[in-house]
Amino acid sequence: MTLSLCMIVKNEAASLSRCLESVDGFVDEMIIVDTGSTDDTIAIAQSFGAQVYCYNWENDFAAARNFGLQYVQSGWVLVLDADEVLVKDVIPQLQAILQQDNLLTVTLLRHEVGAQQSPYSLLSRLFRNHPQIHFQRPYHELIDDSVLTIQAKEPHWQVGHLPTVAIEHFGYQVDAIATRKKHERACQIMAAALTNDPNDAYLCSKLGALYVDMGQVEQGIELLQQGLNLHPTEASVLYELHYHLGHTYAQCRQAAPALQHYQQAVQQDLPGLLKLGAYNNWANLLQDGGRYEQASRLYQQVISLQPEWAVGYYNLGLTLRAMGNLAGAIAAYQQAIQKQPDYAEAYQNLGVALFKQGQLQASQQAFTQAIALHQQHNNMVAAEQLQQGMAELGLPGFPAEGT
């Protein structure tokens, strides 16, 4: 079966080549819808042999994606954004999937690179070129509703799932100004959509979480609760509503409702990786409340779900150190550093634990590396505070505890 890449872009010259290189030689054609680029985006796309179609932007991502679908000639469609790449290792699995006659769409696991809260998501990004498949919703657009409609009429179609990470998303690594503009645009689009369909729990989840991110906490909680009151049946929507409410109440230092919502989030019937954020945040609350044994068990569960996630080891290290288990904390910090070599906070806390064990030379090395990484990440305040703490104590490589 043949495969088409289908994208919408605007001013993506900085990242588009990386995206297209990841699928070059795998897809049979590239269909790119440009919504008004003023940089080299179109020229870059054409250099990869892409067919570029210009589209007048109407504040509707679904409409733009559907515009591109009309030009697809292949039997299957892969949808990516310019700040994403396809993981090369999954290509043989995807090639096998395309040969299955009963699959209508395949959900793909996406790694949110740099995200500290929810590092994985599941999206319907690979689907058959069926005439009735189309995107809906102007923001956070999905094909899922149209797939359910097709299945109701043609029940032989199945939805597949690839359990390994297929897409890496780098959208969390943008600057603050760009993020703010993106949030404001998303807020306007989703608020208008929710006015037209106030019973859309999915939109309540997305817009409610966005309000919280933008500092409109009361409005966000109200909208998230509105979504729960609609009694959605989809596990993914219920998870997001409970997860975002848990995260919001935790930010407001209301531990009891936060714990309740995290517990309900992890009860949803979803792959464990998708619930990683809820498990981790639940454990954080337990740790903050001094319930270290319970927190430690949850962090171990986080690590078992994703052994490559450095944050899980780091948080376990903080808990073990609070329990007085310095050897365990040191091992956990070292695991975090092994998974993420530029983890400044892990080096810093490793230095504290090593000093408490009397390993002065090793602690000094850890602190020195922490300072260098803080400086490398332009976190000059943290670097200066660490240096000052070491100097005040008069001990090489030792900061005031808690830094």
Report on this structure:
The chain is α/β, with parallel strands linked by helices. Among the domains are: 171 residues, Spore Coat Polysaccharide Biosynthesis Protein SpsA, Chain A (Alpha-Beta Complex); 97 residues, Tetratricopeptide repeat domain (Serine Threonine Protein Phosphatase 5, Tetratricopeptide repeat, Alpha Horseshoe), CATH 1.25.40.10. It has 17 helices and eight strands. The protein has an eight-stranded mixed sheet, with helices on both faces. Strand 6 and strand 7 form a beta hairpin. Helix 15 runs antiparallel to helix 16. The protein is globular. The N and C termini lie far apart (57 Å). The C terminus is likely disordered.
Short recap of the structure:
The protein is of the alpha/beta class and 403 residues long. It has helices at residues 16-23, 41-47, 61-69, 91-97, 144-153, 176-196, 201-213, 217-229, 235-251, 255-266, 276-288, 292-305, 310-322, 326-339, 344-356, 360-376, 380-393, and strands spanning 3-9, 29-34, 51-54, 76-79, 84-86, 103-112, 120-128, 158-169. It has an eight-stranded mixed sheet with strand order 3-2-1-4-7-6-8-5, with helices on both faces.
Report the total helices: 17
User: What coarse outline follows from CA principal-axis ratios?
Assistant: globular
Number of beta-strand segments:
8
Low-confidence stretches: 397-403
- Taking the alpha carbons of the first and last residues, their distance comes to 57 Å
- Give the strand order of the largest sheet, numbering strands 1, 2, ... along the chain: 3-2-1-4-7-6-8-5
Structural class of the secondary elements? alpha/beta
CATH architecture of the domain at 3-173: Alpha-Beta Complex
Rg result: 23 Å
The CATH homologous superfamily of the domain at 3-173 corresponds to Spore Coat Polysaccharide Biosynthesis Protein SpsA, Chain A
**CATH class group of the domain at 3-173:** Alpha Beta
CATH topology of the domain at 3-173: Spore Coat Polysaccharide Biosynthesis Protein SpsA, Chain A
Q: What order do the SSEs take from the amino end to the carboxyl end, as H and E?
A: EHEHEHEEHEEHEHHHHHHHHHHHH
Strand content: 5-15%
Q: What share of residues is helical?
A: 40-55%
